[in-house]
């Protein structure tokens, strides 16, 4: 039986299709992701192309308000960029940063958690103390420290080109202890089971036991925490951009769009901040609702038929 046929008959799909909230969240999330990654094809204009931007079009309202231009459905921002296009491109940037940061968190956290939980002893104590020290530094403190070094070393112009990988590294380095602690707790429970003892008896190396036998049995909590961490990473990017430590105004993300329009909010150009804010809330809400459903489904003590 093929993987697709097994999936169609799985209890996972059956439970998912019976939950309207999970289905609605998935549809909303899929819409945002598809719209963001198809921005080069679907966006009316390219906000990165200066030849397509006219500063005389700045702060135009949405089409249903007086003084609007029919070419700009959601209006324009203070730079004269089409707001719909910048939101599409900004959504793509925010999702890329969220996924990239979570991938980095997972790689570091899983490695540290596996080694710490399996080896135990002094190695466990050392790695967990490092994790405790890391938890004492917030994402914003790490961003300020690394951002100052990065901008001093490369300059502001170069920083604009490396802003996306910079934020991925900053958020990833700041949040990996969440994975490390989760994986360590699972490893401590798994390594006492009989299949691990049997693997040791037949002489399998520790690395093979950790990666081929223990790790697959610890992925359930990792999958659950990953959904939450993606939403947290997107929120962290938005917050960093809002306080000027994230994406520059010339490289739109949802956070930088909200920041760039905030100073015009009380002057009447509310749409520059409100529309990106609505998209950000909808994106994070859909991810969190899917994460809650997955947590309940994968935990038999919580899930109800």
TrEMBL record:
The chain crosses the membrane at residues 21-41, 93-116, 137-156, 162-179, 218-244, 264-291. It is found in: Cell membrane. It comes from the Bacteria. Pfam families: BPD_transp_1 (PF00528), OppC_N (PF12911). Keywords: Cell membrane, Membrane, Transmembrane, Transmembrane helix, Transport. CDD domains: TM_PBP2. PROSITE patterns: ABC_TM1 (PS50928). It is a multi-pass membrane protein. The keyword Acyltransferase does not apply. One of its GO terms (biological process) is transmembrane transport. GO terms for cellular component: plasma membrane. Residues 91-291 form the ABC transmembrane type-1 domain. Belongs to the binding-protein-dependent transport system permease family. PANTHER family: ABC TRANSPORTER PERMEASE PROTEIN, OLIGOPEPTIDE TRANSPORT SYSTEM PERMEASE PROTEIN APPC. This is Peptide/nickel transport system permease protein. It comes from Desulfobaculum xiamenense. The lineage of its organism: Bacteria, Pseudomonadati, Thermodesulfobacteriota, Desulfovibrionia, Desulfovibrionales.
């Amino acid at each position: 039986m093929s993987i697709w046929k097994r999936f169609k008959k799985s209890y996972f799909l059956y439970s998912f299709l019976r939950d309207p909230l999970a289905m609605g969240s998935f549809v909303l999330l899929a819409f945002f992701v598809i719209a963001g990654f198809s921005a080069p094809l679907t966006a009316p204009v390219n906000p990165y192309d200066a030849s397509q931007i006219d500063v005389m079009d700045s702060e135009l309202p949405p089409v249903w308000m007086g003084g609007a231009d029919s070419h700009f459905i959601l209006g324009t921002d203070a730079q004269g960029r089409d707001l719909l296009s910048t939101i599409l491109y900004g959504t793509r940037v925010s999702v890329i940063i969220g996924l990239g940061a979570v991938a980095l968190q997972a790689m570091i956290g899983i490695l540290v958690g596996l080694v710490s939980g399996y080896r135990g002893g002094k190695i466990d104590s050392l790695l967990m103390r490092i994790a405790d020290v890391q938890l004492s530094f917030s994402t914003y403190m790490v961003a300020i420290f690394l951002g100052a070094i990065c901008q001093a070393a490369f300059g502001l112009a170069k920083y604009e080109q490396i802003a996306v990988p910079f934020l991925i590294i900053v958020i990833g380095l700041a949040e990996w202890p969440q994975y490390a602690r989760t994986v360590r707790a699972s490893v401590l429970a798994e390594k006492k089971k009989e299949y691990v003892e049997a693997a040791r008896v037949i002489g399998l190396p520790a690395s093979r036991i950790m990666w081929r036998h223990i790790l697959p049995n610890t992925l359930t909590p990792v999958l659950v925490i990953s959904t939450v961490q993606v939403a947290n990473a997107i929120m962290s990017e938005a917050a960093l951009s809002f306080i000027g430590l994230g994406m520059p105004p010339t490289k739109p993300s949802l956070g930088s769009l909200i920041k760039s329009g905030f100073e015009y909010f009380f002057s009447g150009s509310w749409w520059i901040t409100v529309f990106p804010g609505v998209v950000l809330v909808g994106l994070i809400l859909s991810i969190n609702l899917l994460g809650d459903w997955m947590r309940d489904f994968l935990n038999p003590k919580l899930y109800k038929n």
